[in-house]
């Protein structure tokens, strides 16, 4: 255990994205000492959220001296924003974010020895990174992430049928009319998130901060994903690891919640294909068991990273 609070440092690293048309920077925060032991790099979801809701993983730093690296992906949070690239599917690609991750690892000098945790979209990105078999990756955590976006949409629409009829009617009405920015539609989506995103009431402030970034700058989310969880119209609609999950050779921990948008059907292909894998489902959680069952979640992740 730490006898005092771990050190926190923040910085920016230049990231060259030629098609951006301007200099870009990736903002990051390091909690703990990168030289103390192997660091854990956390990839946030969205795409287009921010690092804030993953700050809970500093529990691992406090308990085990595991250094934690958080960062905002290009287009959100404290990193460079590119609203002029709204709709540019040739720019906002999975490869862009893979390159950004590699750039950060090299800047921090940890590319030869690190663990990786990705939540939701971050787990999708992390699984792809791991399938490329980078030499320095030692352990992988895929948290509430689908192995295939087709399976994700199927699961989301099944969960939608569990909502109260009036909420379903509001979703149907405004999607048909193309008025998904209306207050009634947003209220219906809030009801969905309260059941399947984070079941804590009130939601933790870092979770709300993260979600707010998509409203502040929806460029990445709208371009890559589309208008909602139920209708993926961007390039992520064809995203899949079904053919590549077997290429992940590092020990891997899969996690999801009983009420998760990442239902078992979306996670199962990872479990079936990755050679060295463990899967834990959290019975009282939805999409954020690292908040909803925080103590147990951190205990399981900590044991996995230290084993």
From TrEMBL:
The keyword DNA-binding belongs to this UniProt entry's keyword annotation: no
UniProt GO BP: proteolysis
Molecular-function GO term, any one: peptidase activity
UniProt key word Hydrolase: yes
Domain AB hydrolase-1 stretches: 39-293
Pfam families per UniProt: Abhydrolase_1 (PF00561)
Homology family: Belongs to the peptidase S33 family.
InterPro entries per UniProt: AB_hydrolase_1, AB_hydrolase_fold, Carboxylesterase_BioH, Peptidase_S33, Pro_imino_pep
Keyword line: Hydrolase
Official protein name in the record: Proline iminopeptidase
């Amino acid at each position: 255990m730490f006898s005092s609070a771990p050190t926190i440092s923040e910085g920016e690293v230049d990231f060259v994205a030629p098609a951006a048309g301007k200099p870009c920077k990736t903002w990051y925060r390091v909690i703990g000492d990168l030289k103390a032991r192997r660091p854990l790099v956390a990839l946030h979801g969205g795409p287009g959220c921010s690092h804030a809701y993953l700050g809970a993983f500093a529990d691992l730093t406090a308990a085990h001296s595991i250094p934690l690296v958080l960062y905002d992906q290009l287009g959100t949070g404290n990193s460079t924003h590119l609203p002029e690239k709204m709709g540019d599917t040739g720019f906002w690609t999975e490869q862009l974010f893979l390159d950004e991750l590699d750039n950060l690892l090299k800047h921090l000098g940890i590319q030869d020895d690190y663990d990786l945790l990705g939540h939701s979209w971050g787990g999708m990105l992390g699984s792809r990174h791991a399938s490329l078999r980078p030499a320095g990756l030692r352990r992988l955590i895929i948290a509430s992430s689908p192995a295939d976006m087709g399976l994700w949409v199927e699961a989301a629409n099944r969960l939608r049928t569990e909502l109260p009829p009036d909420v379903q009617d509001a979703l149907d009405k405004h999607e048909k009319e193309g008025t998904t920015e209306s207050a009634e539609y947003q209220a219906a989506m809030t009801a969905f998130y309260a059941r399947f995103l984070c079941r804590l009431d009130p939601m933790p402030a870092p979770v709300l901060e993260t979600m707010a970034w998509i409203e502040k700058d929806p460029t990445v989310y709208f371009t890559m994903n589309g208008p909602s969880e139920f209708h993926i119209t961007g390039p992520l609609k064809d995203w899949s690891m079904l053919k590549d999950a077997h290429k992940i050779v590092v020990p891997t921990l899969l996690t999801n919640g009983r009420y998760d948008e990442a239902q078992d059907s979306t996670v199962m292909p990872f479990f079936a294909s990755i050679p060295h894998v463990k899967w834990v489902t959290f019975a009282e959680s939805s999409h954020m068991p690292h908040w909803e069952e925080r103590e147990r979640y951190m205990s399981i992740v900590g044991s996995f990273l230290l084993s």
